[in-house]
Amino acid sequence: MSLSHHQQRQLQRIETGLLRADPQLAAMLGLFGKLSAGQVMPAWERVPARRDRIRQAAALTVQAVTLAAAAVGLLLRRSSPCSSSSPARVAATACPHPGSSAPAAAGEPAAARTRPVRADR
User: Fold this and answer.
1) Which of 39, 60, 65, 87 lies 20 to 30 Å (CA to CA) from residue 100?
2) Which of 108, 82, 84 has the alpha carbon at shortest distance from 97?
3) Nearest to 106 by CA among 120, 87, 118, 90
4) Is 3 within 8 Å of 11 (Cβ atoms)?
5) Sign of CA dihedral 22, 24, 27, 28
6) In this predicted model, what pLDDT tens digit does every residue of 15-41 receive, in sequence order?
7) How far is CA 62 from the centre of its chain?
8) What are the tens digits of pLDDT across the range 40-73?
């Protein structure tokens, strides 16, 4: 991991401050650094690379948009006057004609549910 000059200088200031403030803590951290120097850092402790973070952010954005679209579609379907809760009800009743104000009766023939077309139009 490469650090910028500014970041390295900040770390040196922190280290100097710790050495002055608590020499015992500095000694323990030094011992820990020596003991763990040859070990590989576990994958779950590693910071993902910039490309991986961008990929994760894009995947989360796609999931959020998909979820929002599904929720809007579900809300629109539920608020539709022609929607019903069971498939049997959908087959038994017909959605009223867009121009009609009352729902069609279930036993009414299809010809009776449609409005006559005026010839003068």
Assistant:
1) 87
2) 82
3) 90
4) yes
5) negative
6) 888 888 888 888 888 898 898 888 888
7) 7
8) 888 888 877 888 888 999 999 999 999 999 999 9
